[in-house]
Specification:
The protein has 116 residues and is mainly alpha-helical. It is built from four helices and no strands. Helix 2 packs antiparallel against helix 4.
C-alpha cells in the first residue's frame, strides 16, 4: 500500500469507490421519485431520445431536487448514509497517509497539520 499511496493510485482507487457509491445512492433516491434511467442515449448527438417528455420529466425532477427552497424531497438521510460509509474510509486513508509520509520523509506525524 505504501507504493500505491505514494504514486497516487490508492487515492484514485478511493475516489472511484466513493463516486460509485454516491452514483448508486443518488440514482436510487431519484428512482424513488420516478426518475427514468437511460432516457438520453449514449450517442445523443446523433440519436435523439425516444421520448422528449421523459427527458423533460427527468429535467424537472433534477431541477426540483436542486432547488434549495423545495423541501419535498428528504435528501438528508441519503447524505447522512453516504457520509457514514465514505468518511471513515477517507479518515483511514488520511491516517495511513500521515504514517507513510512521516516514515518516508522522516518527520514527526504531529508536525503534519492534516485534519482527520
Amino acid at each position: 500500500n505504501k507504493k500505491r499511496l505514494l504514486n497516487g493510485s490508492l487515492k484514485k482507487e478511493l475516489t472511484r469507490w466513493w463516486l460509485k457509491i454516491i452514483r448508486f445512492e443518488v440514482t436510487s433516491l431519484l428512482h424513488q421519485y420516478g426518475f427514468i434511467q437511460n432516457v438520453i442515449p449514449n450517442n445523443y448527438t446523433t440519436e435523439p431520445p425516444k421520448s422528449i417528455e421523459d427527458v423533460k420529466f427527468n429535467l424537472n425532477l433534477i431541477h426540483s431536487f436542486l432547488d434549495i427552497n423545495n423541501e419535498s424531497y428528504d435528501i438528508i438521510p441519503c447524505t447522512e448514509k453516504l457520509k457514514s460509509i465514505i468518511y471513515p474510509k477517507i479518515n483511514n486513508f488520511l491516517v495511513n497517509s500521515k504514517i507513510v509520509l512521516s516514515s518516508e520523509f522522516g518527520f514527526d506525524i504531529s508536525e503534519l497539520n492534516i485534519q482527520s
